[in-house]
Design brief:
The chain is 54% helix and 9% strand. Helix 3 packs antiparallel against helix 4 and helix 8 runs antiparallel to helix 9. Strands 2-5-6-1-7 form a 5-stranded parallel beta sheet, with helices on both faces. Strands 3-4 form a two-stranded antiparallel sheet. The protein is an alpha/beta fold. The protein has 3 domains: 170 residues, P-loop containing nucleotide triphosphate hydrolases (Rossmann fold), CATH 3.40.50.300; 37 residues; 117 residues, Zinc Finger, Delta Prime, domain 3. The protein is elongated and about 70 Å long. It contains 16 helices and 7 strands. The structure holds zinc ion. Zinc ion binds next to helix 4.
């Protein structure tokens, strides 16, 4: 099996989408500017590289990259002269695509392709362009250099300029199901119960499941559940709150946001157990044991939403976490 066929196999959740794109390539109908839209970690980048390989391959077979020619080899190594990737640059305070990066890309795009009959440009994280960069890109997409194909990847299509959106065809990538994520994790050697836990909290993103696996993300949900169990039995002491506050002080804001999200989802699962499919279906027996009156659950959910907003300010994380837990404790009374 060639490298790109292997990669295609990794796109388990959006197989039909990539087949459709490859068919477009076989029929010479691939759009000159396309947006791949969908949450992080569901294979947009992988799909874009598979398409790039197919578009640049010297001997494509039914629209697919052969995987063995010089072009395929260079695309796989990211050294093909007609294959250009623009990625967001991360600094301490921000992650964005700057106008200079777009200008560099344009300079490249204005040249004739070198090895192939066309050039493929991937813009990964297109929503991370600032206005100047987006307007600069718009000019190129309005009058595209002949033989140049743009693939824009975005987790937030609505953040792109309307004028860019209207000039690109959009291909939507779906969230994966927990079962798809679980099976893929098991296939990669993750133990079954861990795979189930991760698949439930990954929110449809395989990339997120992998990240959670490496960062001990399943433990975060356990901490959230444990805290709620204690609160519901009026067993959460002030010492517990200060201990947790000290732990949170070492977390990133993103991690505390995840913690809040877990608490909110667990509360919703408890409240709507009778009517909705629970998020945390693997925790059903433990959730069933938590008894909190509906009125108080709503108050706790509102508090969670409020602290989620406060998290976006510069508030001290430890104090924020402690204030949050004291509020939940007070609601239970
Ligand atoms: Zn090839």
């Amino acid at each position: 099996m060639n490298d790109f066929k292997l990669k295609k196999r990794n796109l388990f959740g959006n197989a039909a989408t990539i087949e459709h794109l490859l068919k477009n390539i076989a029929e010479e109908k691939f759009p000159h500017a396309v947006i791949f839209a969908g949450i992080e970690g569901i294979g947009k980048r992988l799909a874009a590289e598979i398409c790039a390989a197919a578009l640049l391959c010297d001997n494509p077979i039914d629209g697919e990259a052969c995987g063995v020619c010089e072009s395929c080899r260079l695309v796989a190594a990211h050294t093909h002269p007609d294959f250009y990737i623009v990625e967001a640059e991360t600094t301490k305070t921000a992650r964005n695509i700057k106008i200079g990066q777009i200008r560099d890309m344009q300079a490249e795009a204005s040249l004739r392709p070198i090895n192939s009959s066309r050039r493929v440009i991937i813009l990964d994280g297109a929503e991370l362009m600032n206005n100047a960069a987006a307007n600069c890109l718009l000019k190129t997409i309005e009058e595209p250099p002949s033989q140049t194909i743009f693939i824009l990847l975005t987790a937030s299509r609505s953040s792109l300029l309307m004028t860019i959106r209207s000039r690109c065809r959009t291909i939507n990538f779906d969230k994966l199901t927990p079962a798809q994520i679980r099976d893929a994790l098991i296939e990669r050697g993750v133990e079954q119960s861990e795979a189930t836990r991760l698949s439930v909290i990954a929110d449809g993103s395989f990339g997120r499941a992998l990240k959670l696996k490496d960062s001990g993300g399943a433990q975060l949900r356990e901490t959230a559940l444990d805290t709620l169990e204690k609160i519901s039995r009026a067993k959460l002491t002030n010492e517990d709150i200060f201990t947790l506050g000290a732990t949170v002080a070492d977390w990133s804001r993103e991690m505390f946001a995840d913690f809040l999200t877990h608490v909110q989802k667990i509360l919703r699962d408890i409240c709507f157990a009778e009517v909705l499919e629970p998020h945390n279906f693997d925790l059903a027996p433990r959730l069933h044991e938590i008894k909190i009156p509906e009125r108080k659950i709503f108050a706790m959910l509102e508090t969670g939403a409020e602290f989620y907003r406060r998290l976006k300010s510069n508030a001290n994380l430890r104090l924020l976490a402690e204030a949050y837990l004291f509020r939940l404790k007070k609601i239970i009374g």
